[in-house]
TrEMBL record:
Coiled coil: none annotated. This is N-acetyltransferase domain-containing protein. Residues 173-262 form the N-acetyltransferase domain. SUPFAM superfamilies: Acyl-CoA N-acyltransferases (Nat) (SSF55729).
Amino acid sequence: MAAAAISLSLYSDRQQVQQQHSCTNLNPTKGLSFLSSRNPLLSLQKIDRYNFKCSCSSSNSNSVTPSQFYSFLDDPFRGSRFLSNEELEKLKALESFVYLQELESGSLCIRAMRTEEMDLTVGLLAESFAESMLLPLGYEALLRFLVKQYMIERRAVMPHAVTLVGFYKEKSGEEGEQLAGTVEVCFDKRGANASPPSPTPPKNSPYICNMTVPKQLRRRGIGWQLLKASEELITQMTSSKEVYLHCRIIDEAPFNMYIKAGYDVVQTDSILILLTLQRRKHLMCKKLPAFRITPESDISDSGEELP
């Protein structure tokens, strides 16, 4: 299940999007408030398959191994902000992070998204968002534009936040590696969204959001592995042992997965939130163990969608 809270106020009204679409002067940072860098992305439901070439090899267990050399310092979207020595070390940790898992039906490789993969990830998010909002296909180009602006702005806060992407390959080998999901992880206050969804999580605590798995790849344990990879990376990047995420009340499958993974509900939206055309959500929290625990490989996804 695309398990993780979606930090995008994607619960905005369809009519609001259509009104923005009719504007002639679109400001990408002001156009759709729920897509600005001050808000998290949206929950996704369905995406087409994309073929990727991943340099990771599969393993029978989870592990963190060096990937082919890739420097985020050369990322054109990182900006010219000066990085402290501590930030440089964390950036290197993101470069080398690779989470490998052998699933029953194939192999999964999860790592930080690279610049050349942004457009494909944007396409995944935009198409899924359009479907979840029941928007006509004509709005997909607008959504792609807005989602990309958001991702570019979030890219600039690395290493305080990162977007992870997963690549999946069938054991049959009939199809090449394909994008199997994505998730955003915020590590601290500097990486937090300025206006996260309610109930508001502590800004200085790690936060998982915007997780999704393609519909055709659900029920294979990919959402569970994205969640576990996020937790493992958090333990490497921060000393905080509490991680937060959101889950919509209507999403029973993701909720059950979070409960199974050790998350507890700490707060729930008031029913009055419905007046703002948003779905009610749980804020959930988990205390991470001091040592890495091997994730269960037999847990399958049932919803592949985050709130």
